[in-house]
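Budget justification note: compute hours in this period were largely spent on complex prediction jobs such as the one shown. Inputs:
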Amino acid sequence: MIYGQVLVDGLVVGLMFALVAMGLSLIYGVMNIVNFAHGEFMMLAMYCCFFMWSLLGVDPLVSTPVAAFLMYFVGVAVYRLLIRHVLQAPMVAQIFATFGLLLFVQALAHFLWKSDARTIPESWVTGTFQLGGLFFNGPELVAGAGALVTAGALYWFINRTETGLALQAVAEDPQAARLMGIDSDRMFAIAWGVSCAAVAIGGGLLSTYYAITPLAGARWALPAFVAVAIGGFGSITGAFFGGLIIGVVQTAGGFFTSPNYKQLFVFGLYLLVVFWRPYGLLGRR
Amino acid sequence: MKAWLSRRVEGVPVAAIVALVAALAIYPLAATLPFWRHVVIMSMLYGAMGVAWNILGGLAGQVSFGHALYFGIGAYAAAYCYKFLGLVPWVSLPIALAASTAAAVLVGLPTFRLRGHYFVLASVFIMEGIYIVVSNWDRFGAAIGLEYPVYKAKGFLDGFWHGQFADKLPYYYLAFALLGLALVVFRAIQRAPFGMFLVAIREEQDAAQSLGVDVARYKLYALVASAAITTLGGTFYAQYVLYVEPASTMSLLISLEICFVAILGGIGTLWGPVLGAFVIVPLTELLRAYLSGRMVLDMSGLAGGGIGAWLEYYARGGGGNLDILAYGLVIMLIARYRPTGVLGFFRKLD
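Corresponding output:
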């Protein structure tokens, strides 16, 4: 039973990693940029929900879509002001652009709100319950379910809507896409907006039970890179399953050793995967 | 003599180099305030490590975001050996270098097969993994780190032997020597066939391989050399601040700072990292000193409420980290407006 509990806990956490990883993978797939600042949008969404709760008394489950809506425009703005100008630059400059953004946003959060952890002690969903011998933490389960729904919506958006297909066309061949009348610049901006909105939903759902600090986003984004790599950079579906895998690995690793070491197993997994398949488990090239 | 002085080493006339070296050598005699010496010590330290990073990142084109690992090895080896084994840094240095070489080989052998972002992320994850181990290992002081026993030196030579000085001046000349060493090593590698192989690997790895360049071996040599100098920097740093902790020696931020000086000044160039370090390090040190002098953590002004109190709180530095805020901003601006670095000799990688 204990193994079943670890597996279920891991999958619930993994759904959140999956959502974070899918946003990362979307940006990488469309424009070959590794967004180191991805977790920072998540962190901003957490603060957004916190302040809507503390100042206006709005429950995070209500304010999460609002945070996602705001983060969409933050993502578009980041693209327009920064990313667009480094698309043709060497890889190092691109890494520094998003890493500089990470430092900037994190430090801004420190400056504005200090490093003290904030929590939302009471929200609509609280407590734990038991189901078939397994224990579930209510807020975590709701967050996992919300992440699953968002991941599904993201999948639907990419594969079933005209905009999503246009995004894929740009990712495949920007030149040909342009000849077909697709404005790649606009598509890139949309990719950033959607990616940030998706991770913001993750942040909003997390804010119901997770300590909100300036570093909260980075703790989720770094392992999410492993999920992206496992799934093969740029594959949305791969990132989803990669997220589930690292959720289970991290939870099991933390359970059988010490929670302090849980990320070690995720990083180790990355090395194992890339040494075995240098382009990721599901990757090609 | 005159012909020699007007020769150029990577675009800089020898006369100018001689003048700069002389200026750096006499600078601390003019700048007697510890803070002004400290700024240049840190600039030279980061300059040396940027030059070291540049052997791998600039010449061979392998972008490592994990160089803080080697910095940390140097710092921890010195602190651990002194505190627990009673070994002075001159004795522990070979141990540190052996550890750093072993680490470089262990890291390099598997990761050099990876390309592009996969390599970058591997270097990050290995360093983060070691960071987790060290910050949970009580023998190494865990997250708190190791504090040096302060040694009361009997005379200069005794202090020199223990690598501890009450004054910043000896540290200054040690950092000066370290920077000189790094530049000489870089230049020697750059001019040797070895350096040309590295550039060939950077420009077109597959072509270099097909022409018989042993790609894996030369990448590994480059990493070992780069790691060794970075380790020297780590040992120097530990002796300088007499305190090592994971966050200030092995974190991603330190890795970033090391390679940013090279990127800022011009990746792959001899003088770029030095220029980069002398621009960004004084900037952040000055900002940090300025902010820490003004920052007030007392939030009593807030209790009264009102916009004025808020403004006052933020004007006094808010929750802190303004130096990192500025650092991130500079990095973004450089990436945005000068993606090829300030000197602009940057070439496309991967």
